[in-house]
Amino acid sequence: MKFGGTSVADAAAIENAARIVSAERAASNIVVVSAMSGVTDALLAATPESVEPIFSRHLTTAEQLLHGSELERFNEFVKRAEADVRELLHTQNTFNHKSVQDAVVSFGEILSSTLMAAVLNQRDRPARQVDARRCIITDEEHTSAAPLLGETFRRTENELRPLVESGVVPVLGGFIAATPDGVTTTLGRGGSDYTAALIGAALNVDEIQIWTDVTGVLTADPRVVPNAQTIARLSYSEAAELAYFGAKVLHPKTIQPAIENSIPVRICNSRLPHEPGTLVGPQSDTSRRTIKAIAHKTGVTIVQITSARMLGAYGFLRALFEVFERHRTVVDVVATSEVSVSLSLDEVNALPAIVEELQQLGTVGIEKGRAIICVVGEGLRGTPGIAGRVFGTINDITVSLISQGASSINFTFVIGEEHVKDTVIRLHEEFFNHEKAQESQKENR
Ligand code: ADP
Ligand code: ASP
Ligand code: MG
Fold this sequence. Notes:
Blueprint: E1 2-3, H1 11-23, E2 31-33, H2 39-44, H3 52-65, H4 68-91, H5 97-122, E3 127-129, H6 149-165, E4 169-173, E5 176-178, E6 184-186, H7 192-202, E7 208-212, E8 233-235, H8 236-244, H9 255-260, E9 265-269, E10 278-281, E11 293-306, H10 316-326, E12 331-336, E13 340-345, H11 351-358, E14 363-376, H12 386-393, E15 401-403, E16 410-416, H13 420-444
Parallel strand pairs: 1-2, 1-7, 2-4, 3-4, 7-9, 8-10
Antiparallel strand pairs: 5-6, 9-10, 11-13, 11-14, 12-13, 14-16, 15-16
Helix pairs in contact: 3-4, 4-5, 6-7
The protein binds adenosine-5'-diphosphate, aspartic acid (ASP) and magnesium ion.
């Protein structure tokens, strides 16, 4: 059971999350928590002079939740954490910046998990905080480390199984991990979902539950489409595509560990715990709807390489993609023609160096401020006319890249960032509201 930042944002939210955990009496459960909302951002921006409010927020929250020795112990823990963070911040400029940053932000999850374990204990649900850095073992890529699966599974099993078997609820901070040598790393922003999935896979659990502030995965981002609807069931592939292309409700890597053991992933609303939310599993549902959801992602850069040398030549694409590999830059969407390749990037730190190397291969063009729109559904396979409907709906907006694989369950294209809201709203209207109206018309006939 993973609770995100808003689900542990204050005393009332933590109380509520603890109630949800306690209600699950029949099953033995494991809890993963994010930092209280806003704490990771605050720690990332912190200086030794500015950290105090982060810690006093934990203290005032604990005062509303704990009493007696439980409260005293937590207060002491917070004081020590504050001193540790100050010391780390003083060294930030002397040592490797990213590794100090990981050590600093890790306190968000360390504090929230310690508090959650204390609250559960006080509710007579025996619980113990377990340092996730003893379970999730990663490479040394600070700020976006990749787990070493064998070692992670072995350690998680050793650390958590005995607790679970003796009826104690292990409570871990998400997002944080360590190298085999014990140096703190993190899994990337939003990574607590991934922690939950890794632990679920390690212990081969019955279900991975992601408790958040919306009722499951919705047909579009609710910040853009307020009347977006909960999707009852999604296949693993559908959920993974939505997560890759911007549906923030799931970290993009969450689905991977679940697939291996066919573990269902349920996304629930911690404020409306009785709503069923979304169930992600091997199968999609067989609804008439071809499209399940629309995802979007802004802040995308398009790189276009044009070269006559590509014509009829082999090895060109390899040379091109090796440039991105050398600079450890992930490419998302790709489209090629005889003489040009267009591709999209999220991460542009290495862009100047990449462009310099690409210029050896051809003429390079860059478009910044782009957005990816992705319509997803298993029904896209073999349904004709989807592209026509999509582009018919937005025929006044310029599209700069289109991609749909042969057996693909997504249809993806790139537009200017300024058109994102309008595009998503219009597509949602076309594929959801309009279709719904037609269905009910048929039923009334
Ligand atoms: P948590 O802190 O619980 O991990 P996040 O903020 O990371 O929560 O993710 C939940 C948010 O994701 C929602 O509040 C919503 O604004 C956003 N979101 C974007 N796209 C979708 C979508 N398709 N379905 C549900 N939520 C989405
Ligand atoms: N606290 C981390 C973040 O804000 C991880 C998470 O919330 O999933 O990115
Ligand atoms: Mg999240």
